[in-house]
Write a structure and sequence with these properties.
Elements: H1 3-13, E1 17-22, E2 26-30, E3 39-40, H2 48-55, H3 60-74, H4 91-101
Antiparallel strand pairs: 1-2, 2-3
Length: 110
């Protein structure tokens, strides 16, 4: 998935709707409980604060699953130096684990 696809998928999982790509402002949508006007979607792939807000919608069971996914990713691959500090995982890694947790992750078709 591209960063834009990841950002849109996380926003949708958090209740955002009505997405468009604005030529100047990038991905925009309508957040939940909003006045109806579109606003810029958070950059979940690079913003740990945005990921923290997204993770807040998860249940305790989902948070445990996401923590396990992060631990598995940190134990192997290019983030092995982070292990066991999975809680220090970069935003892009958290975004992927979040989408896998809520079953919205899509593998890139080759």
């Amino acid at each position: 998935m591209t960063n834009e696809q990841i950002n849109e998928a996380i926003a949708a999982a958090c209740g955002w709707t009505d997405f468009v790509v604005h030529p100047e402002f990038g991905l925009m949508g309508t957040p939940p409980d909003w006045h109806g006007l579109r606003t810029a979607v958070d950059y979940y792939t690079v913003d740990l604060n945005a990921m923290n807000e997204a993770e807040a919608i998860l249940t305790a069971e989902q948070r445990n699953h996401m923590r396990w996914l992060l631990q598995m990713a940190c134990d192997s691959g290019k983030y092995a130096d982070l292990s066991p500090a999975y809680w220090r995982a970069p935003a892009i890694m958290r975004a992927e684990a979040f989408l896998q947790t809520v079953a919205k992750w899509k593998e890139v078709q080759k």
